[in-house]
Amino acid sequence: MIKIIDITVDGNITFKANEDLHNVTIIIKDYNFNGNILRQYFEIIKKEGNYFLSISSVLVPHLKNTYIEINDNNKLLTIDFKFPSNLLKGYSLYGNSCVCWRTYEAFNSVYNSPTISNLILDDKMYVQFCEHVDSYLDTNITFGNVRSNQNFKNQYGTERVVNPNVPIDRDYPITHHFDLDIHWIHTKRRELEFGDSTYFFKEVSSNKIPQEEFREKWIRRVQRGKGTTKIFLWSSSEFFNVHGDWERKQLINRFKKLPNRSILLTERPEEEFEDDLHIVKYISDWKDNHQLQRDKFGGIIWNNQLENSKIFKKIIEEKFL
Predict the structure, then answer these.
(1) Tell me, what's the pLDDT at 163?
(2) Between these two residues, 75 and 288, which has the higher pLDDT value?
(3) Class level of CATH domain 2-81
(4) Is 161 exposed, middle or buried (0-12, 13-18, 19+ CB in 10 A)?
(5) What is the pLDDT of residue 164?
């Protein structure tokens, strides 16, 4: 009846029929969830055509047991399928923000590095982390108060990211790695729920993550990354500090001289650069944006992590994979 001919990691499904079909309802489901991921009605599906279904790429990493349910004039057919996964095998990604997590999602790959769902709020410390990554990854970590975030505090009056528009606990854990502070801003577990072709992530407020679990996650993901090829991600839309031109130039020069691969997205065309291991990519859609366009909590208002992760994915595919 219907045959799937292509499935992409971005959540796109291409299918065709072996005969003309009329009044067909196609539903995407997952055995692990209640509700419909997608419901789409086709008045006619012609034999000679290709047809498409599309779901959000944000959902793909959560869907492990998916199937298509086809209702053709009350005749029911199901087809099991899986999205491509682990496309980053052999590589590990590192970042200063949740865009690293989003880029792993874009590849539907396991987290084989520990900079996931956490922040490094000092840009100089992030570059220093990149330059001495193995030392920072392998050291014993402890929990404590903010230490190395003076630049952020001077500019925004706070040592922590506390935004009333984002569900971040004020007392989120901070781990110490030598002189580096890591801010673990996501402290509650999330559950994915589906309605009828709608979805939302529900935070389970009564199920707060134990502090020691953050240490375990760090150690586990560090071990996963052993022996992989490192790629460092950074975006000028996620500079946590405002820099003068000279200081910015020094930080970017250090970043593009790392012994490992690195990718930087920038709003300034004159900063474009590329060699075998590094790329500074000018994003033309960011033209005329500047670093002072921030909310009162320090975030750059033209930042979009989901779109940035797609750009990182494209660059990684074209340059390194």
Answers:
(1) 66
(2) 288
(3) mainly beta
(4) buried
(5) 59
